[in-house]
Structures are given as C-alpha cells and as structure tokens.
C-alpha cells in the first residue's frame, strides 16, 4: 500500500508528477513520482507504507490543480475467473467501505473497459455487502477500483470528503439545449467545483450583476442568465439573439481588458483566449480594486512547464492582493471541460 494513484487529463501526467512532488516535499513524505505519457494517470511511490495516507491527509484534494481523482493502494493482477474472490481476499484486512466506485482511466482503452466495469459492478457490490465489507452511507472510506484491463486493477482507498466529487472526477452535466456554445459547461462545472451547492442560492442569486469578458456567442452568459443574473456581455463578436431578448443582457462591443463597470458587480467571468499572465493580471485588478466580489477566469496553457507556470501566476496574484491589503480565497483547477487550460476562481473576503 505504498502507492498513491492520481488520475488526470491525458497529456498532463508531468503536471501531476510535479504538483504531487511539491505536496510531498511540503509534507516531508519521501518518495518519487512516475508516469507514462498520455496514460491519464501518475503514481507517487512512497518510501514507506504510511506515506500515501500522510500525503492524502495533509493535502486537500479540492485544492490540487491537475489531479482529477486520487486513491492510495496497490495494483493487483486478477485471474480470468473468480476475480471477486481475489479482490475479497485482498480487501480482508481493510476497513468497511462506505461506497464503491469502479473507475477507468481517461484513455481509449479505458473507454472500452467501461462496459466491463458496468457488468462487473453489480455482482461485486453484492459480494462485498455479503462479506460485510461494504455498508453504503457508513463512516468508512470509499473503495476506488481503477481498472487498466480486465486483469489489472488498482485497489485504492480515499476519503469521500477528500477526493473527487464524481467518479473519475468527471461531472455528468447535461448540455442545456438552449445554450449557444459548449463552453457553457465550463462555467457550470466551475460553480460545482468552487461553490458548495448549499451556497448557490446566496452567491448566484437572482438580481445579481455580472460582467462576462469575451462573451460571444454567450455560453457563459447563458449560465448567468439562467440564474436570473443581469449580465454586461463584452465582446466584439455577436451575441446569441435569444439571450439579448431575455432583457437581462447588455452587449458591449469593447476591449475586455479595458472595460470597467460603472458600479461594482457581483461576478466577473472571462474566457478570452490570451496569454495567461494577462488574464491573471486582469483577475488581480478586478478583485484587487473591488470591481467584483467573485470571479471565474480561464487561463490557457500553451507552454511546456504548465504546473510551474500556473503556480507562478497564482503566487503573483496572491502577492499582488497582499500588497493591496485585500483578502481573497484563490482556487484553481483543471476542470473536466478544460482542455489546455485551467480555471481560476477568486472571492473577495
Ligand atoms: C472562447 S470564446 C468565448 C466563448 C464564450 N465564453 C461562450 O461560452 O460562448 C473567446 C471570445 O473572446 C473574444 N475576445 C478575444 N479578445 C477579446 C478582447 N480583448 N476583448 C473582448 N473579447 C475578446 C473573442 O471574440 C471570442 O468571442
């Protein structure tokens, strides 16, 4: 049990290795990170068996940027027949689990394995319950089984409150048919990730005001309007007519980096494709000058050292706000709907 497995978007394995190594150094957990390119996962191999648990309890999963899911455990080889027997035997010495998720990696092989997992789940669940190893809704950890093939599985454990909210860290969001672009799901996912559900009514309330920078055709604006928030949509490009007809949207053909609202707004969101340093500076200005209370801004990452770049930008934002004497919470995540990018969320406190 000396391995921590982390899922990620394929192509971001090096970022996960760098980030988890940083966390391990901070927590004084000895070990090393390894990953195969495009495998959609990385592993942190600890020098001792308590390392993974120390890493997981010392870091908040939701605060990590690139990992989509994590679990501590080990790889098992399963036989062709009686996979369940071998799994039960392996889990014997483990605590009683409060939930079971069967997961695959976000690769083509992984997609092909999803069917196998669906079929395997019901009999496995039944056997675990019968053996007293699974009590849904109990206090125990979550059992996370990541299948690499029908014969190779990572038998992992994670605390439900300190791991991904959805299996594989992939939210099942339904694309709203009326929304004018698929990007709409990025903002919805950001809200799920950064705002506890019970606070939505207070922090995304009807009658609030927002500025959407780089708004065309209106996917993000649609999300705001859907919550009855009044939006200043800033873009030289055209906005969806139905959104304009909603009476809640004003279209400003202006440069998003120069635009300032006459009065402070509740929200600023920005999806402009620009150098990440420029978008990060914009974020610092809006929160720092009190132009908005909360902001969601996308940072595109076309460079190689993406973790190092994001870390540098987040530190710069934090330093800038500290110099102004402004307190804010700063979050950053590569969401499932993000491609070569991450999403930042800031809230003035
Ligand atoms: C990725 S798209 C935004 C998609 C939008 N969030 C949606 O959900 O439909 C980026 C937009 O930024 C706009 N843009 C680029 N530079 C801009 C600038 N300096 N000021 C305002 N908008 C800009 C582009 O016209 C483009 O419409």
UniProtKB/TrEMBL annotation:
Q: Name one Pfam family in it.
A: RLMM_N
Q: Does the keyword Ligase apply?
A: no
Occurrences of domain RlmM ferredoxin-like (ranges): 1-70
Question: What cellular-component terms does GO give this entry?
Answer: cytoplasm
Q: What is its main location?
A: cytoplasm
Q: Which residues form the Ribosomal RNA methyltransferase FtsJ domain?
A: 181-274
| Residue ranges that the Swiss-Prot or TrEMBL entry lists as coiled coil | none
A single GO BP term for this record reads: rRNA processing
Write down the HAMAP family for this protein, in alphabetical order.
23SrRNA_methyltr_M
Protein function: Catalyzes the 2'-O-methylation at nucleotide C2498 in 23S rRNA.
Assembly, in brief, is: Monomer.
NCBIfam families from the entry? PRK11760.1 (NF008734)
Q: List the protein's name.
A: Ribosomal RNA large subunit methyltransferase M
Q: What is the lineage of its organism?
A: Bacteria, Pseudomonadati, Pseudomonadota, Gammaproteobacteria, Pseudomonadales
| Gene expressing this chain | rlmM
